[in-house]
Design goal:
This protein is mainly β. It folds into three domains: 97 residues, Sandwich (Immunoglobulin-like), CATH 2.60.40.10; 110 residues, TonB-dependent receptor, plug domain (Ferric Hydroxamate Uptake Protein, Chain A, domain 1, Beta Complex); 546 residues, TonB-dependent receptor, beta-barrel domain (Maltoporin, Chain A, Beta Barrel). The protein is 5% helix and 57% strand. It is built from six helices and 50 strands. It has a 22-stranded antiparallel barrel. A five-stranded mixed beta sheet has the order 9-16-17-12-13. A hairpin with a 2-residue loop joins strand 27 and strand 28. The longest helix is centred in the first third of the chain and has 17 residues. The termini are far apart.
Amino acid sequence: MRSFVLFILFTFCFSHFVFSQQVTVRGTIRDASSGETLIGANVKIKELVNVGVSANSYGFYSLAIPKGKYTIEVSSVGYASQSKEINFSTDLRMDFKLEVANQLDVVEINASSSRENINNPQMGVSKLDIKEINNIPVLFGERDVLKTIQLLPGVLAAGEGNSGFFVRGGSVDQNLVLLDEAMVYNASHLLGFFSTFNSDAIKDVNLYKGGMPAQYGGRLASVLDVNMLDGNNQEFGVDGGVGLIASRLKLEGPIEKDKGSFMLSGRRTYADMFLKISSDSTVNKSVLYFYDLNLKANYQINDNNTLYLSGYFGKDVLGYADNFGFDWGNATGTFRWNHVFNSKLFSNTSLIYSDFKYNVDVFNDNNDFKIASRIQNVNVKQDFHYFASNQSNFRFGLNILRQEISPAGIDASEDSDINSMNIENRQGVELAAYISHEWKPHNRWNFLYGLRLNTFLSLGPGEFRTYDEIGDVIDAKVYGRGQVAKGYFNAEPRVSINYLMNENSSFKASYNRNTQNLHQLTNSTSTLPTDAWVLSSNNIRPQVADQGAIGYYRNFSDDKYEFSAEAYYKDMQNQIDYKNAADLQANENVESELVYGRGKAYGIELYLKKRTGRLNGWVSYTLSRSKRKFEEINNGNWFAARQDRIHDIAIVGMYQFSERWSFSGTFVYNTGNAVTFPSGKYNIGGKSTWYYTERNGYRMPDYHRLDLGATLASKPDKKFKSSWTFGIYNAYNRKNAYIIDFRENENDPNVTEAYQVALFGIIPSITWNFKF
């Protein structure tokens, strides 16, 4: 560890000395029409070979060059390039505003550099442009970030119509989902059929599949980093859409032109409005809807200081007459301060709040009770980006995260047959520090390495119990507020190496360690808002994953085509599962129901993408396995995890037929999930009981589906723009199995029969979109 730190400090000082005689040009790159910063835009010097950088996540760049007269070129995919000839004699600031290119002549579906896949040392990263998301047909015509990433290699859908996803053999809770740096705990509406991300409000989406940069932590499988639009700082605008199930509206405009802007976006479903017209009193008293609201504002105080304030509020409400009510939702808030210390040092300071909660209300004569649960966190982050030179830049920072979980308790009325139950809250503090270094010592070699140090403290107040092998309490200790009941420390080294074989291809290798202190407990076939969450404790150790990966990357035909092949192996420790017949809800001794073991996942991911032209899209294929091993389950043998799917294929195509007409289609195929079915049955007191043997020893049927879409845009060059989007979900009406259950034959109880429930057949959709 000491040698590692010394090496970083040596490299830092050496880089500073070597390049101290050069001048530095720095600035921010924006969209000319909206003022939005352009993440990943490229800046290079025409006369100097291999002298260039990419803008960071705030559009900021810093480039060191020798003194002299040069041509600086700025480009970003989908935008017209700019170049200026400048006599560089001293440090200076140069901001750029790029104009959108003619989208019919060159259709680009990726907002990153055309060769970033080859040159970037980072492995397992996928970047999506919002234009790409908007063109892909999805369920009910609602554009969806999470449905789109499920079409990428190594990412599997959690189920039919579900916005949950599995990454490289990990479970749903092993994905860190961020919206403007704030954690989103349950990123779905309507029990998973829609995501919480309204695409009208989204600017940029990055998915890291296991190989996370050192600035990210807290999950094993992936990081989904979603950034909201800043808002147009040039002019006011309105856009939105009206669909069969939901409508949306976005307002944006300048607070002060060129200095600050705001964005306000909302969406709501209206299925509940149709329930009101029913003649059935039970139906017309029921409710079924969700809404979400995105807000963001920013203001540039001066050239060196910019403030950002953003928030998200979303809620689902389900109610059945006067008998049952269920609501859940997320709320987040992020305050950020960008500060430029000098031409080389960039700082981002963030104060972040996240809140997820659900409430269940049951009203009847015998059972009148409420169930409520909540997760809250406050996060303080300080991140620095130091541009030591064009070949060397550092990221380092600190993170303090405080989390509090209010487990699901029961508040019953005096006349209820159910007793009230109050379960103690649990609190924890996670402290992290990180440093990473991207270093390019040679034109062919590029290194990205770093270290994240993580300390988790489980805090009082509360009683912390210890259990024996059968789940009985053998010890209990009471801790006061702020007292440390248990602490864990983990070091997370991360390294990626990129070797440029030639200008069109590269080879990469990486190793990453990640830890996780927040755990989701579920024994359902799909993730639900009511699933329990627990923190690491005296019984639950942090989950740990070590992942190694290698990959080959190549571009063809002047970067028109992109190909990649990645292979990975992941070893997971302290994995959590539940005992057979475990009770995970409203259980004050829920930790006694858990078992701990190992996991492994491995696979190969192939990806071919056409980036430009009227016809573009991609094909992805994943061959993978994901297994678990617990001494208490399956006789201690390895068994397939629920997310174990051997084959997964996605084909995505988009065709710009004319200025007004565009067409799209997706086809998906995957092996069915591993599932536990009964192996037999036995009779006790005249009642049949299912007999289960092997955990996840069976498979659901294979899944496949075709979706089609078409968009008719209004005539160009009009102030008011509109379009009609037509979609067909499940075009050939495939009856994919959502549930397979078992029952006794009505005519012969000795005969057991399986029956299948299909959730969706063919579903048409139509949406009218507008902008002015």
